[in-house]
């Protein structure tokens, strides 16, 4: 558990927010169903120093893997910042990230899946070198592969280098996966549940290997659901619940002196090895709520055994609890870890998490007067006409059987229907309304305002579909020359197009 | 120890035919007794034969397997004439929660109809009575009876595992075999399920065999444990005596490889891998990985010795113990 004092942290994550949109489909869009998001990570801050192992602990769905994926920029974040070795990598392009990828490597959960079954150990470990154009000649590369195998504890390396994954045990496979990340000599290793798929008898070996790398100065971010493992091998533990870190601190301090009720409950249900050491497990009812609908206030309050009335409204921030023994120990609970400290609460008394959330939410809306709406309508009609005439003009150039003026008419209606369906169906915001600053009611609220109603949107969509079909049929006419006249007569006489 | 065993397994062997004519000796002479109301843990690494053992007891092994030995229920050998003698007892007397059972429900049938199925098959209840019982069973495992007509996808993982337990209890069995019932679940849900299993065995007088690779789970739930290695039970006894006085190095090393939340001891892995079971094993199967192996281990297979009442182990380290062999 030694922590080397180093100049600055390797990885600094500040107020990270990651959300995934929930697809609502064409029907959902047209019905203006609220646009939902999975709130995977909501304001997470932590740091990993060189030679330090930090464990993110939590149940499935708490956002620990999303945090890891965001940190390595596999997933884009919606807020907050990620700094690696002092550089802000939050908005960095894929090309800019490329040299950094060498320094940040990932180890995945399942070595039975993560290794290519048709690659020999040599190929698996050599591949990163080829991708990053490192390692020089094939002789030098082989030397690096052998070294990586040795570092990963597969000795003698000659025995393993030409094997296929199916000739290896689970523990050996995971060591190969680790060797493949070590070959690039990374500074930070992100290990997502590195031992959960392995047999108990070999887990300790893999963890000891990671521990050794940490002692050599590597920073390790370990994602795990196993508190015992985290307590044994990590320097610091951060306990996550529903996208937030609810408690963090030195590993032994967190498991021996837990402050947050969730951590306390988690620790009480970890089975002990000694059958005579029967603790009373504090079993929480239910399961982690759906991160689409996060509870108000403290997100743990619906399952919390000590929740008070205030917990429904106050979203607590991480702060040093009175019962903590070390200053680095922090928890987010107003009941068991009370006393907000000034630096973590915003000027209006809201926590940093609340402020971050508020910054992302659209501004509160207000309805404007009728005259503004009329002007918005005028702008929208102008946009529809202009766009429609342009579209009609293009249509008129395409060879077909319909007259030019009819084509322009079709263009206007088609464009208007499309504009209406898309602009209004998805966001509720048209160009006219935007121009005049007419706010639209939050889609999570009670529904659309102004001229659109669900019926109108469906009508617009139907008109759009119908006209599209007409245009396609019309364009295809010249292809069937002999039937052209007959079909032309039929379509032209159809009452639909006399509108 | 006073009561007669409800279930008694004697010298159970299972071989699997491998392509190429060789055989894999997956279970190599497993014997144990299960008493009424007892919770026994069957622990070991993957591939040690623990799941094969209980599948053999249910008569559910594939046709490539050959089985020898006896499984007696109330003194009657249910293996005597294969399927003919097993099937009347399957689910009615011995039921099972399968590994990954929560993902084994038919997605296009309601949970209720899938629990009714074994009742009607075995004739324990039909029609309205069966549906009524299903509601009661769901309530028993902590699911609202109103959800009887829900489909599996409407349940969370923990609820599906509860439903799988309800399914196993459909015909009021006396013995429940639970194969890794909490492996894919979160710690909190695992605690809920384990508490449920303990409550059910206590309230319904069920006997249970809990198959798992997780020693702490067995330590907290079971009265007795059998540790399996390479197809045989290498140590068996009361849980506390196994923990405090392990008589087989494998048991000791397995405990040593399991991190304890508040323990300070170093966590050490067991070097090497289990032996291949398609070859004959000479000497003690654990000898190549053992930290206390000595001369005879490589050549002579150790005998099963009772080191203290109810505690037996298969290890040469106990050879000096002058004790009777277990009957």
Main structural class of chain A: alpha/beta
Order of secondary-structure elements of chain B: EEEHEEHEHHHEHEHEEHHEE
Strand content of chain B: 15-25%
Q: Give me the count of strands of chain B.
A: 12
Overall structural class of chain B, as computed from helix and strand content, comes to alpha/beta
- In terms of per-residue confidence, which ranges of chain B show pLDDT below 50 for 5 or more consecutive residues? none
Q: Whole-number average pLDDT of chain A?
A: 81
Number of helices of chain A: 17
Q: Which quaternary structure do these chains form?
A: heterodimer
Strand proportion of chain A: 5-15%
Distance between the termini of chain A: 80 Å
Instruction: Return the average pLDDT of chain B rounded to an integer.
Output: 91
The spatial strand order of the largest sheet of chain B comes to 6-7-8-3-9-10-12-11
Order of helices and strands of chain A: EHEEHEEHEHHHHEHEHEEHHEHHHHHH
The count of strands of chain A amounts to: 11
Numbering strands along the chain, what is their spatial order in the largest sheet of chain A? 6-7-8-3-9-10-11
Main β-sheet description of chain B: 8 strands, mixed
Query: Counting H and I runs of at least 4 residues, what is the number of helices of chain B?
Result: 9
């Amino acid at each position: 558990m030694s922590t080397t004092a180093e100049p600055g942290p390797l990885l600094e994550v500040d107020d990270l927010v990651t959300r995934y949109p929930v697809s609502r489909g064409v029907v959902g869009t047209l019905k203006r169903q609220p646009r939902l998001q999975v709130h995977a990570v909501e304001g997470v801050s932590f740091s990993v120093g060189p030679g330090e192992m930090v464990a993110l602990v939590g149940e499935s769905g708490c956002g620990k893997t999303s945090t890891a994926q965001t940190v390595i920029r596999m997933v884009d974040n919606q807020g907050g910042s990620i700094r690696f070795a002092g550089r802000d990598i939050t908005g960095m392009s894929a090309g800019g990230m490329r040299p950094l990828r060498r320094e940040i490597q990932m180890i995945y959960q399942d070595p039975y899946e993560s290794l290519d079954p048709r690659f020999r150990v040599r190929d698996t470990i050599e591949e990163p070198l080829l991708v990053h154009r490192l390692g020089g000649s094939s002789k030098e590369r082989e030397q690096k592969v052998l070294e990586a195998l040795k570092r990963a504890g597969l000795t003698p390396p000659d025995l393993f280098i030409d094997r296929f994954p199916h000739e290896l045990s689970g523990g050996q496979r995971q060591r190969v996966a680790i060797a493949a990340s070590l070959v690039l000599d990374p500074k930070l290793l992100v290990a997502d549940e590195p031992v959960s798929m392995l047999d108990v008898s070999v887990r300790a070996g893999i963890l000891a290997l990671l521990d050794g790398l940490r002692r050599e100065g590597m920073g390790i971010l370990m994602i795990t659901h196993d508190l015992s493992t985290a307590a044994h091998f990590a320097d610091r533990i951060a306990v996550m619940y529903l996208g937030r870190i609810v408690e963090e601190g030195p590993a032994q301090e967190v498991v021996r002196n837990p402050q947050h009720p969730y951590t306390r409950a988690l620790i009480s249900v970890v089975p002990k090895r000694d059958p005579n050491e029967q603790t009373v497990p504090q079993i929480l009812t239910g399961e982690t709520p759906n991160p689409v609908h996060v509870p108000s206030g403290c997100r743990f309050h619906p399952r919390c055994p000590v929740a008070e009335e205030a917990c429904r409204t106050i979203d607590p921030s991480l702060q040093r609890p009175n019962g903590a023994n070390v200053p680095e120990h922090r928890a987010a609970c107003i009941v068991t870890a009370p006393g907000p400290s000034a630096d973590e609460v915003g000027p209006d008394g809201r926590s940093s998490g609340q402020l971050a959330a508020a910054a992302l939410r659209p501004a509160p809306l207000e309805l404007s007067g009728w005259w503004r709406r009329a002007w918005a309508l005028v702008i929208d009609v102008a946009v529809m006409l202009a766009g429609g005439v342009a579209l009609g003009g293009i249509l008129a150039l395409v060879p077909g059987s319909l007259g030019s003026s009819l084509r322009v008419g079709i263009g206007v209606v088609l464009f208007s229907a499309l504009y209406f369906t898309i602009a209004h169906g998805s966001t509720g915001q048209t160009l006219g309304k935007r121009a005049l600053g007419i706010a639209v009611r939050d889609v999570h609220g009670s529904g659309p305002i102004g001229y659109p109603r669900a019926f109108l949107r469906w009508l617009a969509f139907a008109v759009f579909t119908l006209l599209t079909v007409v245009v396609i049929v019309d364009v295809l006419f010249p292809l069937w020359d002999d039937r052209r006249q007959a079909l032309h007569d039929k379509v032209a006489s159809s009452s639909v197009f006399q509108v | 120890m006073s009561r007669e065993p409800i279930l008694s397994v004697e010298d159970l062997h299972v071989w699997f035919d491998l392509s190429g004519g060789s055989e894999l000796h997956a279970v190599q002479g497993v014997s144990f007794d299960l008493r009424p109301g007892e919770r026994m843990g069957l622990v070991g690494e993957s591939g040690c034969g623990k799941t094969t053992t209980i599948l053999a007891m249910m008569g559910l092994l594939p046709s490539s397997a050959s089985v020898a030995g006896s499984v007696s229920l109330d003194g009657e050998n249910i293996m005597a004439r294969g399927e003919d003698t097993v099937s009347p007892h399957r689910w009615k007397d011995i039921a099972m929660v399968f590994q990954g059972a929560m993902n084994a429900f038919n997605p296009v049938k309601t949970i209720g109809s899938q629990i009714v199925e074994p009742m009607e098959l075995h004739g324990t209840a039909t029609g309205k009575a069966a549906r009524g019982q299903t509601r009661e069973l769901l309530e028993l495992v902590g699911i609202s009876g109103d959800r009887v007509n829900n489909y599996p996808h409407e349940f969370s993982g923990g609820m599906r595992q509860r439903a799988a337990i309800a399914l196993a209890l459909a015909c009021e069995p006396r013995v429940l075999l639970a194969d890794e019932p909490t492996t894919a679940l979160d710690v909190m849900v695992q605690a809920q399920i384990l508490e449920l299993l303990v409550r059910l065995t206590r309230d319904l007088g069920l006997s249970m065999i809990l198959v798992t690779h997780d020693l702490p789970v067995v330590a907290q739930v079971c009265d007795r444990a059998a540790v399996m290695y390479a197809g045989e039970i290498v140590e068996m006894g009361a849980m506390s005596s196994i923990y405090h006085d392990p008589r087989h190095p494998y048991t000791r090393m397995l405990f040593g490889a399991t991190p304890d939340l508040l323990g300070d001891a170093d966590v050490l892995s067991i070097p090497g891998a289990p032996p291949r079971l398609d070859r004959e094993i000479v000497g003690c199967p654990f000898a190549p990985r053992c930290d206390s192996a000595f001369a005879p281990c490589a050549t002579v297979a150790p005998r099963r010795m009772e080191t203290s009442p109810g505690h037996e182990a298969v290890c040469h380290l106990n050879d000096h113990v002058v004790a009777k062999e277990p009957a």
